Amino acid sequence: MKIIRSVKEMQDQAILLRSQGKTIGFAPTMGYLHDGHIALMRQARKENDIVIASIFVNPLQFGENEDFDKYPRDEARDRKIVEKEQVDILFLPDISEMYPNSMGVTMDVVSRIGVLCDRNRPGHFKGVITVLTKLFHLTQPSRAYFGLKDAQQVAVVDLLVTDLNFPIEIKMVPTVREPDGLAKSSRNVYLTEQERLESKHLYQALQLGKQKIIDGQKNPVMIVNEVKTYLKQNITGKIDYLELLSYPTLSPVNLIDEQVIIAVAVQYSQARLIDNIIVTP
């Protein structure tokens, strides 16, 4: 495995590989890797000649009161995991490499926002699409891999690639879960013992909503109310949001007759958990 920290070296290497006719699978991460990240690398390994993974905690996507400084980091541990997964190149830039100067060009998103995580994290997806645009130019991927745990991010990335004509195929990888259903996340380490025990109910609540749709319920308000009632009865965390929207457009629906997403975010003492389930009626 080759480790690259320089922006120029990464781009030069990627351009060389593409000139040789190699397909590149790219898995962008913010590190502190878990099975969800590993699933991205494994799928990329199956479908491409070369696999590039990146680890970069992007400051642009953190708000003023968010956990950039506390975000878990362990480069030595992550390097071992990436090497074990037979990744060809690990891109490890620091902030001075990615943002040597304040950005003179800004990017914005006007669709698929204003709901879910974006409602309480203004500017978050500006930071996401900015760093991904830079990473896509640097790694020259044929395919880029994203986990559906953050389904809004996947929808926004799909919009970025479509609207700006990036020659990249976006691959959506199913959420990797703990045996009790909790979606794997780097932030799970911040849960207390009691919070970890009850966190399984997030996925069980989403499964309840899915079953209601399968059973023929088409009224989104009734489904949201039942799921919310279940959560309030089983968790102590604060429900940040619980929404049912079309997917991937993330628009409100009055009648469930298309693919939808049921998404939830719960704030615990030191961790904010998100999860979702996508259902086609």
Automatic annotation (TrEMBL):
UniProt-listed Pfam families: Pantoate_ligase (PF02569)
GO cellular component: cytosol
UniProt-annotated binding residues for ATP: 30-37, 147-150, 176, 184-187
Pathway(s) annotated for this protein in UniProt: Cofactor biosynthesis; (R)-pantothenate biosynthesis; (R)-pantothenate from (R)-pantoate and beta-alanine: step 1/1
Major subcellular location class: cytoplasm
UniProt EC number: 6.3.2.1
Subcellular location: Cytoplasm
Catalytic residues, chain numbering: 37
Binding site for beta-alanine: 61
GO BP terms in the entry: pantothenate biosynthetic process
GO molecular function list: ATP binding; pantoate-beta-alanine ligase activity
Keywords per UniProt: ATP-binding, Cytoplasm, Ligase, Nucleotide-binding, Pantothenate biosynthesis
Acetylation is among the record's keywords: no
Catalytic activity: (R)-pantoate + beta-alanine + ATP = (R)-pantothenate + AMP + diphosphate + H(+)
Annotated binding of (R)-pantoate, by residue: 61, 153
The protein's role, per its UniProt record: Catalyzes the condensation of pantoate with beta-alanine in an ATP-dependent reaction via a pantoyl-adenylate intermediate.
Subunit (UniProt): Homodimer.
Record family assignment: Belongs to the pantothenate synthetase family.
Further information: The reaction proceeds by a bi uni uni bi ping pong mechanism.
Name of the molecule in the record: Pantothenate synthetase
